[in-house]
C-alpha cells in the first residue's frame, strides 16, 4: 500500500481501514500471510514528523517446530512509529522521485517481529518418521 506524501502534507492526516495483500512474502519461516487488515492513521505532526499509528490483524502460516506441518498463527498487533523525513530509517521506505511512502515495507518488518521462536500443535511429542521417533513422557 502506497501513501502519497503530498496528500498527507495537505490533509495533515490520512485514515486507513482496509485489507492488504502481501504478495512478496520472502522468508524461510513465514510461508504465507493472509486475511491481513490494517486500521489506523498516518499523521503529519507539527514537528514535521510522520506518525504512523496502525493496528494489524490477520494470519500467517508457519511450520510446526516438530513436524513441519503448516500452522495458522493469528496476528493482532499495533504499529506505532514516528519518523523524521530525513532519517535513514524513513528513507528506506520511500520512493524518492514520486514522494511515495510504501506502508507494505513497514508492515512486513513488523510481521517478521511477530514470528514466534517455536510453535507446535504436537504437545505429546509422539512424532515419528522413517528411521526416527520422538517420544514424550508416556513412553519412558
Assembly type of the chains comes to single chain
Strand content: over 45%
Rg value: 20 Å
Question: Averaging pLDDT over every residue, what do you get?
Answer: 82
Helix coverage percent of residues? 10-25%
N→C terminal distance = 53 Å
Regions with little confidence, pLDDT below 50 for 5+ residues: none
Task: Count the beta strands.
Answer: 9
Shape: elongated
Q: Would you list the SSEs in sequence order as H and E?
A: EHEEEEHEEHEE
Number of domains: 1
What's the arrangement of strands in the largest beta sheet? 2-3-4-5
Structural class: alpha+beta
Main β-sheet description? 4 strands, antiparallel
Total of helices: 3
Element layout with pairings:
Elements: E1 2-4, H1 5-11, E2 13-20, E3 32-44, E4 49-63, E5 70-84, H2 88-91, E6 94-95, E7 100-102, H3 103-113, E8 128-129, E9 132-133
Antiparallel strand pairs: 1-7, 2-3, 3-4, 4-5, 6-7, 8-9
